[in-house]
Design goal:
mainly alpha; 159 residues
Length: 159
Amino acid sequence: MILVTHSIIGSALVHTALSVGGAFTAGVLSHYLFDMIPHWHYHVPKVKEASLRAPGSAPIKLSRALLADIRLVAIDLAFGLALSFLFFDGSWSVIGAGVFGAVLPDLLVGASKFWPQKLLVLHDKFHRWIHTDIRLDDRPMLGITTQAGIAILFVLFFR
């Protein structure tokens, strides 16, 4: 699932929460729950290549192509954060914590490819285990439509 969708789900679930810690925890849990649903990923070949490496393998090296892919991921994250603040009222710290929690698992997977430390590798294995094996990457119209639909439903029902 793309970070915009994870961000909107996380912020929708927590924007009325009173606790930053609770918002963060709910965001993290939402990530794992929604990664169980078949979904689409946009084309970032170097990030995908890195993410498919065996957990704990040698660290990846930065390259121009990988940095270009990371830039797209950063734009995805920034867009998700901006939409979360736009669509939902509430404490900025609570919404930010919900968004951060909702995207953190994917960021940790990325971190494990640069720094294959024991806890990051363990998280990568767990993330792979919980993530659906059904990917809509080769069906972008269906994948984009379903993620947009999920995001719209969360905005409509939780706003």
